[in-house]
């Protein structure tokens, strides 16, 4: 059913390995086999230490299966249920269960025949993994699962969807922003996720039932990636020293003090750098690492950007300094006002009585609007427009040399797409100064503010209509269309108000009858 999960490396892929390192891409042939007890047992937690940690997608495999956000708890619930029912039970989705257990067995063979026989440290791997559309993800070795932060549902995981939608190897660093705390490469192990889809051709049709990949050790692979920039004209001569008035060999290792070498992914995020002080910035948007170089790449059409507007966003309300701290409400009389006879004939008394009547009619008592003073945090939100910017690699496929002209601070830049990957390889001279006037590129969501709001209001925004319109139905009762609705107060409240108003008129008659 499955030809192979891993295949021999191509000549381009071998460039990433030293001459003494063995190939990490041995072929693996898997035979067709039915479901077995061993496949189910490989899901048990007691097998994780020897066969790697297993994550299963939180799907409704059976009606009585209790879902949980904790994947370990969900796996235990799944195992406990299968001990009571069989995969062919009517209360279970037989197709989901068979695919899950079958994929578990196939990946288990991958562990037994390949992963266990390889020393991952030799290749600079922190972990190897495989995920299938059946819903199983296995990470080897087991300790690597402690730092595994991907979604257990493969189709919700970024690496899985990107591998299915693109050909070749997809590199992805852990996403970080400039506001996050910088990593410490000496204490924190930084891993780069590399994944690719498994393609199988059956009956002339190509399908992608799984994604396999590795997690690279950044420190080990930075030395390997430097050989991509080796361009020695004479192997017997040493590299020339770079200088302002003379050229030098494009060697990212020998000339690391003069040359900047980067691997940037298709979204503009830093993957690798030959500058050790920038290793703690891996995973950041490249404009936060070198804004001048990122602007040069964008200005020379290596990267394009797409901006979209979210007109239904909410933002924090900006406090108004002109508002006071006192709450707004109805006038509250003091004791001195009550004993003052003139006050009862004033408008304030009638206003208070009117508020009392309205409170009875509308079932609310002296509702007031709280206004916070400046400096006090407000929980209220306001409607705003947010702009979202996404950068992506253009269709340039060859190698380009460009000049970033900044007067006395000009420098040469060499950029090339790496075949069969989502990477852009960039080599640039160090910038001697920071006097270039550039646009600071950012991919973070930010509020969109019109330069001239009055002109923007005259242009109507495009609003997409519904995909389908409702047909006219003759049986529909349209008599209520356009009818207004009036407030209907409580009958007891109206009677009480009437008695209060009639009391001054009928009270003399009551007194005369009593006397």
Automatic annotation (TrEMBL):
CC annotations in GO: voltage-gated calcium channel complex
Top-rank taxon: Eukaryota
A GO molecular function held by the record: voltage-gated calcium channel activity
InterPro entries for the chain: Ca_channel_alpha-2/delta, VDCC_a2/dsu
Residue ranges of domain Voltage-dependent calcium channel alpha-2/delta subunit conserved region in the record: 40-482
PANTHER family in UniProt: VOLTAGE-DEPENDENT CALCIUM CHANNEL SUBUNIT ALPHA-2/DELTA-RELATED, VOLTAGE-DEPENDENT CALCIUM CHANNEL SUBUNIT ALPHA-2_DELTA-2
Official protein name in the record: Voltage-dependent calcium channel alpha-2/delta subunit conserved region domain-containing protein
Organism from which the protein derives: Eleginops maclovinus (Patagonian blennie)
């Amino acid at each position: 059913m499955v030809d192979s999960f891993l295949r021999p490396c191509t000549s381009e892929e071998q460039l990433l390995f030293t001459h003494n390192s063995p190939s990490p891409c041995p072929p693996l042939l898997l035979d067709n086999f039915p479901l077995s007890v061993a496949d189910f047992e490989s899901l048990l937690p007691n097998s994780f230490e020897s066969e790697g940690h297993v994550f299963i997608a939180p799907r409704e495999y059976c009606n009585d299966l209790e879902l949980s956000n904790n994947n370990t708890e969900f796996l235990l619930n799944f195992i406990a249920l299968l001990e009571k029912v069989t995969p062919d039970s009517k209360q279970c989705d037989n197709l989901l269960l068979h695919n899950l257990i079958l994929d578990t067995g196939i990946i288990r063979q991958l562990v037994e025949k390949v992963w266990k026989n390889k020393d991952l440290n030799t290749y600079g791997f922190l972990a190897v993994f495989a995920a299938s559309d059946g819903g199983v993800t296995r990470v080897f070795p087991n300790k690597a699962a402690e730092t595994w932060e991907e979604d257990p549902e493969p189709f919700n995981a970024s690496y899985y969807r990107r591998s299915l939608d693109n050909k070749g190897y997809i590199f992805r660093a852990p996403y970080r922003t400039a506001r996050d705390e910088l990593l410490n490469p000496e204490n924190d192990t930084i891993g780069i996720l590399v994944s690719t889809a498994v393609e199988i051709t059956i009956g002339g049709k190509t399908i992608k039932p799984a994604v396999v990949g590795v997690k690279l050790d950044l420190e080990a692979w930075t030395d390997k990636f430097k050989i991509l920039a080796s361009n020695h004209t004479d192997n017997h001569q040493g590299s020339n020293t770079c200088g302002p008035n003379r050229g030098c060999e494009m060697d990212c290792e020998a000339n690391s003090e003069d040359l900047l070498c980067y691997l940037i992914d298709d979204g503009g995020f830093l993957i690798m750098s030959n500058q050790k002080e920038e290793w703690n910035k891996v995973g950041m948007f490249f404009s936060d690492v070198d804004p001048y170089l990122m602007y040069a790449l964008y200005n020379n059409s290596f990267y394009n950007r797409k901006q979209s507007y979210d007109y239904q966003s909410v933002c924090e309300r900006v406090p108004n300094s002109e508002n006071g701290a006192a709450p707004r409400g109805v006038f509250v009389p003091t004791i001195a006002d009550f004993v003052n006879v003139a006050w009862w004939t004033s408008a304030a008394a009638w206003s208070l009585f009117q508020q009392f009547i309205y409170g009875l009619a509308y079932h609310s008592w002296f509702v007031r609007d709280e206004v916070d003073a400046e400096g006090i945090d407000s929980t209220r939100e306001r409607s705003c427009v947010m702009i979202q910017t996404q950068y992506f690699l253009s269709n340039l496929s060859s190698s380009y040399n460009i000049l970033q002209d900044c007067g006395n601070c000009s420098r040469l830049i060499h950029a090339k797409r790496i075949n069969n990957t989502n990477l852009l390889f960039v080599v640039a001279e160090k910038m001697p100064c920071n006097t270039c006037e550039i646009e600071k590129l950012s991919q973070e969501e930010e509020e969109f503010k019109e330069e001239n709001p009055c002109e923007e209001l005259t242009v109507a925004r495009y609003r997409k209509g519904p995909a389908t319109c409702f047909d006219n139905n003759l049986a529909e009762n349209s008599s209520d269309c356009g009818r207004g609705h009036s407030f209907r107060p409580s009958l007891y409240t109206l009677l009480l108000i009437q008695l209060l108003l009639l009391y001054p008129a009928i009270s003399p008659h009551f007194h005369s009858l009593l006397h």
